[in-house]
Amino acid sequence: MTAIPRPTADSPAALLSRREEAGAHLVQPWPTAGKVGLGAPGAVGDGDGIYILHEDGRRLIDGPAGMWCVNLGHRRAELAQVMQEQAMALSYASPWYTSTTPALDLAARLAAHAPGDLDHVFLTTGGTSAVETALRFAFFRNDVKGRPDKKLIVTRDRAYHGASYLSGSLNGRPRDQDWMFAARDLVIRLSCPDPFRRPAGMTVDGFTDLLVEEFRQAIAHHGAERIGAFIAEPIQASGGVVVPPPGYLKRMRDLCRAHDILYISDEVVTAFGRLGEVFASQEVFGIEPDMITFAKGVTSGYFPLGGVMMSAGMLDDLRKSNHPDATFAHGLTYSSHPIGCAVALKNLDLLEAGVLAEARANAGHFQTALKRLEDHALVGEVRGMGLMACIECVADKESRNPLELDLEVGKRIDTHCQERGLLVRPLIQMCVMSPPLTITRPQIDTMVDILDAAIRATMDDLVRDGLWHG
């Protein structure tokens, strides 16, 4: 087959012109009412490995890997090639009445990697649809089993689970639901398991006990007969890379099992190498969920795909119900898309062939190098695991008070980073990094050097503007 030509990249001037002329027609995610439809953010026109090219000609390290997803980096020829080959062989088939070889092969490959008996998969189009599918299946299962009141969903502060009505109702980040209608009557919200924000004077072990007891009391208050599922990201990604206390997730899982509550592990971010494993639930955290949701890194962002791993025991239990003809009336036009499945298979090949091992080998250097940024007066904590990390800024280290939200310190740091060759993801008073798994140690060192200079510049700005006194 003829090699895929690389598209000619737009010149910086052409990119800028296109954004100014056409950007007003594109509505971006998460707009504010006062700016919706008034233009697009800075454009990028090319990518290569861990780098992207900004419209003004700057070559930037892609610190967030797109949106936690470009795990194998940009311009990966093997993934582009398999997309072309599958599109020329079979571009689409309806999942309602056909199956395809890529989907069947991917299901088997994923089952081999999943923990315990999670050997079934429902393939979706991304993370939001994966979470929506898991929740709707939990509802369906309880209805079929004659438990229509077992519908409440337990989630946590600073969680992020998606952008549909139901999945978005679970989100607990600042500002996410200020103006969004949500299914609040279905949601029980627990505290964020962030050790950095634990009560003053409390040990981490004591904090863990407090969190587990909170869940226990919620079960007692609402009734296990009304709680259908507990959903948790192993690491709360968009909430600021919150790494839970040791043993916390396992104890929450034990409570779920004791009270017949489904445990959904939301691995949309943490799966496919971000923590060095295909799935992190058991390998990293020692838990065997009832369902695992995934997306993002399954195709390294080259094609929209997601899914839900489901336990065989859960499905077997459902088949034994008194309603064998009950229909799980849920599906997506692009479920099991053959191109997406083909890309995911090649993505797994590359992960297994060495990328996972490289990611594990470099994770310690990544975390250690970033940790030195805590020397800055502005930085309260640098935390993370694997190849994901967060820098959280504070007004002062002793009280751990975050800076006023309207300072948007993360955006200030990101601006200074971009001037120096790095793109990070700003989240109010935090900056998040999750670079491609293919990043090298020298490139990690470059990232940290840029962050160091950008934080220094931000502190100078805040002092100059009279917003912070160091």
Describe this structure in words.
- The chain has twelve helices and 16 strands.
- It has 470 residues and is an alpha/beta fold.
- The radius of gyration is 23 Å and the shape is globular.
- The chain starts with 11 loop residues before the first helix and ends in a 6-residue tail after the last helix.
- The chain folds into two domains: 14-75 and 356-464, Aspartate Aminotransferase, domain 1; 79-350, Type I PLP-dependent aspartate aminotransferase-like (Major domain) (Aspartate Aminotransferase, domain 2).
- Helix 10 crosses helix 12 and helix 11 (409-420) packs across helix 12 (441-464).
- The chain is 36% helix and 16% strand.
- The strands form three sheets. Strands 4-10-9-8-7-5-6 form a seven-stranded mixed β-sheet, with helices on both faces. Strands 11, 12, 13, 15 and 16 form a five-stranded antiparallel β-sheet that branches. Strands 1-2-3-14 form a four-stranded mixed β-sheet.
- The model has no long low-confidence stretch (mean pLDDT 92).
- Strand 7 (227-232), helix 8 and strand 8 (262-266) form a beta-alpha-beta unit.
